[in-house]
Design brief:
By secondary structure, this protein is mainly α. A two-stranded antiparallel sheet has the order 1-2. Helix 2 packs antiparallel against helix 3 and helix 3 runs antiparallel to helix 4. The longest helix is centred in the middle third of the chain and has 27 residues. It is found in: Membrane.
Length: about 375
């Protein structure tokens, strides 16, 4: 077993089995936090959609060039907010109605070129296997042998800022190194035979949206659509990649990943990290409140903060209080960059492992930055 006793961990081993059970955490959370109010959930979706159309109208009918950068940042953030609501639909925390969850999820995710069911199923795999070296699905660590077999170009794209911040569309089409399949075809390793109709439905919705965007590009011109839709889309992709990466990386001391008998749903979930995003916490629906969400994805986003506060006394040191943010979470940039350039691979063996650093790539990164 690898150890990672560093600053802040001298008296605490984060890989040790916790002295509580998941039922203890569940019992500490108020019962009303589990209640899904479809009207409240719909109100957030309607709010986000209204803001998106309002921002587009302001930008389109404004003749001032300096409006566009503000529009891109704001609209990309709202695309990200819409994704988070669709994410709740995927978990079933939007409502108790599977039909409503699927309907709203398809509208919201198709609008930002995400295949709802394809992503929903792979994201469910991520939650069911969080913290597992081989079986996790989101930002899963590479083993040392896989890492060393990759061409240098792949290493550069995966571990050099800013390239990882644009990886989500590639992940949807090709997944990550060491894993095969696509989110768009039912024969992918991601899916079981009984999920074929779901995957086809979402892929068809994706194609319809792509065709609609092509039509709008013909009608309004590609430059106008680039400014109105595609630049915000890439801002959304950056939000998604950065936030999801920070959910599982970049704590001040390295956190464990598990294999075999050492892995459990609880221990894997306790390796996730809460983050404070300042003004953006409510805009993107408290997605930074992530530990409780990972353990109990059925809790609606509007109850996550209360549920987390209620569970802290049970979690103890296994809960890592997020660093407080100013209005804009600039403090996360340093954490993000440091983790990407240092957290490269984990050992091929061992049931409890930690990220290790490829010193050669680190030197390459530092030389490139200084040149």
């Amino acid at each position: 077993m690898e150890t990672n006793v560093t600053r802040g961990q001298a008296d605490f081993d984060p890989s040790a089995p916790p002295p509580f059970k998941i039922a203890d955490i569940r019992d500490a959370i108020p019962k009303h936090c589990w209640v899904k109010n479809p009207w409240r959930s719909l109100s957030y979706a309607v709010r986000d959609i209204f803001v998106i159309f309002a921002l587009a109208a302001i930008a389109k009918y404004s003749s001032t060039w300096y409006v566009w950068p503000f529009y891109w940042a704001a609209q990309g953030t709202m695309f990200w907010a819409v994704f988070v609501i669709g994410h709740d639909c995927g978990h079933g925390s939007f409502s108790d109605s599977r039909w409503l969850n699927s309907f709203v999820g398809h509208i919201l995710h198709s609008a930002i070129l995400v295949p709802f069911h394809g992503w929903r199923i792979s994201h469910k795999t991520h939650h069911q296997n969080h913290g597992h070296v081989e079986n996790d699905e989101s930002w899963v660590p590479m083993t040392e042998s896989l890492y060393k077999s990759l061409p240098s170009s792949t290493k550069t794209l995966r571990f050099t800022v800013p390239f990882p911040f644009f990886s989500f569309p590639l992940y949807l089409w090709y997944r990550t190194p060491g894993k095969e399949g696509t989110h768009f075809h039912p024969s992918s390793d991601l899916f079981s035979p009984n999920e074929t109709s779901y995957v086809i439905t979402s892929t068809v919705c994706w194609i319809i949206m792509a065709a609609f965007l092509f039509h709008l590009s013909v009608v309004f011109g590609p430059i106008q659509m680039l400014k109105l839709y595609f630049v915000p889309y890439w801002i959304f992709v950056m939000w998604l990649d950065i936030v999801t990466y920070l959910h599982h990386h970049g704590y001040e001391t390295k956190l464990p990943w598990y294999r075999g008998k050492e892995w459990s749903y609880l221990r894997g979930g306790l390796t996730t990290i809460d983050r404070d995003y300042g003004w953006f916490n409510k805009i993107h629906h408290d997605i930074g409140t992530h530990v409780t969400h990972h353990l109990f994805p059925q809790i609606p986003h509007y109850h996550l903060v209360e549920a987390t506060n209620a569970a802290k006394h049970v979690l103890g040191k296994y809960y890592r209080e997020p660093e407080k943010s100013g209005p804009i979470p600039f403090h996360l940039a340093k954490i993000l960059i440091a983790s990407i350039k240092e957290d490269h691979y984990v050992s091929d063996t061992g049931d409890i492992v930690y990220y290790q650093t490829d010193s050669k790539h680190l030197r390459f990164y530092e030389n490139m930055k200084s040149s």
